[in-house]
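SAMPLE LOG
Freezer: B-3
Tube label: C17
Construct: single chain, 468 aa
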Amino acid sequence: MMHPYPMLIGGEFVAGDRKLEVVNPATEEVFVTSGAASEAQFIQAIAAAKAAFPAWSVSTMDERRALLVKLADGMEARVDEMARLLTSEQGKPLPEATGEIQYAIGFIRYFATLDLPVEVIEDSDTRRVEAHRKPLGVVGAIVPWNFPILIVAFKLPLALLAGNTVVLKPAATTPLTTLLLGEICKDIFPAGVVNVVADLNDLGGLLSSHPDVAKISFTGSTETGRKVMSAAAATIKRITLELGGNDAAIVLEDADPKKAAAGIYAGAFFNAGQVCIALKRAYVHEGIYDALCDELAQLANAAVVDDGLKQGATIGPIQNKVQYDKVLEFLADAHDSGTVIAGGNALERAGYFVQPTIVRDISDGTKLVDEEQFGPILPVIKYSDPLDALARANASPYGLGASVWGTDVTKAYEIAQQMEAGTVWINQHLNFGPNIPFGGAKQSGLGTEFADEGLHEFTQLRVVNMAK
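STRUCTURE (predicted):
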């Protein structure tokens, strides 16, 4: 029997050989029983992508662009349907889910404007040297549960535009909206160019190690990223890894507490803090520490934590039970290691709900400060010397994002230049776009996404050097 939201393999809808129960995190109840692939079906999807590659790779850029625009149009026609489904499986408030779909559409439309022109490196009397960008082959795209559609839009359109075919694997706890996207793709792309295959969180290694997969684009935890890197090593597979982060903010003494608090709160608690580049620890100068903590506590206490489908909800549940249990451990550490001035508890009701929590009087060396909490908890650490705060912020093995807050932008810029992160914001956080290269430093990732640099990640550089 065909399950709802079937997989897409070789241009055909396919029921999974295994059962996949999808839980609504706001109720803890299964709301859809769909299908998941067996190992044989995953191999079938890779074979379909491989078979489709020769024809797709020689299609023109204009042809690929036109189909990407059709994909954006198809999503636009179903925004409401996709957003409600996204909230039901992921938990985020419906306005955020709608925004995610719309932002993904915007990314696809922008990427459809990019090009891969031949670059003439030299054209002298003795030689002509050109740099060409060629497609790699089959791309495995592995997407996490925090942004099941937006992160697809970081990978799928660039891979396709470069002339690759794709096997797309959504997270096992949030497969449905991505499978629905596969339904839209079915009527747009040639058979096998896009394949969408769900699993039970057990077949990512197959995709990462398979010899017919030329590249893996993975977004997820640093721990899983290491496994992807290891699995890809046997075939020297190209990889792009966007991994965990423990983004630090340094709030300088001249910052406006009210204004900074609003930006910091938004950067920390969007999507219930389940954002790789969310602000996860704030170092605040002692001169404004009390005032800023008070402002953050007011914002946290005003939040409405509820089912994302209910009007007025501003923070939804943690997406899944495994992550919820981890967040509860961080809450326990917050009470043990600092002073909780807002929130601090899970809600006593069905659903994986946690109050937005502000913790002051806490320091480095604690679990909440040193590790990535990936939930709605923000530790606020006092400092007196900006250079000391900078050293503590940089001491993390992570380096995805960071931010500096202050009225004197010149001073903030000086600090920003010294922060060890792929992106450093000044007086803002979580500001990004498809035209801005994005990638992590240290153990927060490998490679670059977005913009021309991100497109190049899906290509093989071929230099043609001709004697004259």
